[in-house]
Amino acid sequence: LMTTTVTITGTGCPIPDAERAGPGVLVDVDGLRLQFDAGRSTVQRLAGAGLPYAEIDAVFITHHHSDHLTGLQDLVLTRWVMARGEVRPPLPIVVPAGPAESFVREMLHPWRHDLDVRATHANRSDPLTLDIVPFDLPDQPTEVWRRGDVRVLAGQVRHEPVHPAVGFRVETPDGIVAITGDTLVCDEVAALAAGADVLVYEAMRFERIRQRPPHLQFILDYHADTPRIGAQAAELGVPILVLTHLIPPPESDDDVQAFVDDIRTAGYAGELVVAEDLSQVTLG
């Protein structure tokens, strides 16, 4: 029997938080390890999930906001440095064509001297290379990567003015995992999550953000409001809903309960996880 495990490697946002790494989701399908986004401290969280050397099989990027990418260099460098004589295949990085692709193509350039001296000193003949897999923004969820009977589809989401921005849908023999990335609640997410067993959704409590000074309210333009998430998840009939990228980051049990109340009051009755770093759900 196969098992698919979804581990939230980071539940944070640009607001620094000692307990919350930057955004990221690890989907492990019977040992096939797929990482979605890589915010700050992703490598430490992967170590906490049992992958101390960042032994990832592919990385998928949703968009070019820095909080989703600042841990990517660390992941890629760690995976290579810690290979210790084992020649690993180039890491696939599946990324929407455009600014995020440009970042991935350029991100190792500042490290070229480090990589050169490490390779020379350790007498390594396996330079750090990446298998960059760009894709055009699809109108509908479209396959962008496959290995065996596991396939990953990308679908556009609504995170304007950030463009392109996508979410991902992971189809495995155990079930379907949908990951929104950053987005408004929208029909595009519904298409991505149709029939999903697990929906990992970014979550913001608009009610709290509206209490902030006007110049800080621009973030309401492009995030997902918790009551609307609850209503959409109920309509979709998703069995398991996982909230992450939590804004504002919960600082107490009451804060966590407020996320729960928003979702439940909107009608969602399935299994609900207001994620902490390394929260897990399992299929199969």
**Major sheet summary line:** 7 strands, mixed
Strand content: 25-35%
Q: Low-confidence stretches at least 5 residues in length (pLDDT < 50)?
A: none
| Rg result | 18 Å
| Strand-pairing-aware structural class | alpha/beta
Shape: globular
Percent of residues in helices = 10-25%
- Give the strand order, joined by hyphens, for the main sheet: 6-5-4-3-2-1-14
Number of strands: 14
Oligomer: single chain
**Helix and strand string, N-terminal first?**
EEEHEHEHHEEEEEHEHHEHEE
**Number of separate helices:** 8
Distance between the termini: 7 Å
Mean pLDDT: 97
Question: Helices, strands, pairings?
Answer:
Layout: E1 4-10, E2 24-29, E3 32-36, H1 42-48, E4 58-60, H2 72-81, E5 91-96, H3 99-106, H4 112-121, E6 130-135, E7 142-147, E8 150-156, E9 166-172, E10 175-179, H5 187-193, E11 198-204, H6 206-209, H7 226-236, E12 240-247, H8 253-265, E13 271-274, E14 280-283
Parallel strand pairs: 3-4, 4-5, 5-6, 10-11, 11-12, 12-13
Antiparallel strand pairs: 1-2, 1-14, 2-3, 7-8, 8-9, 9-10
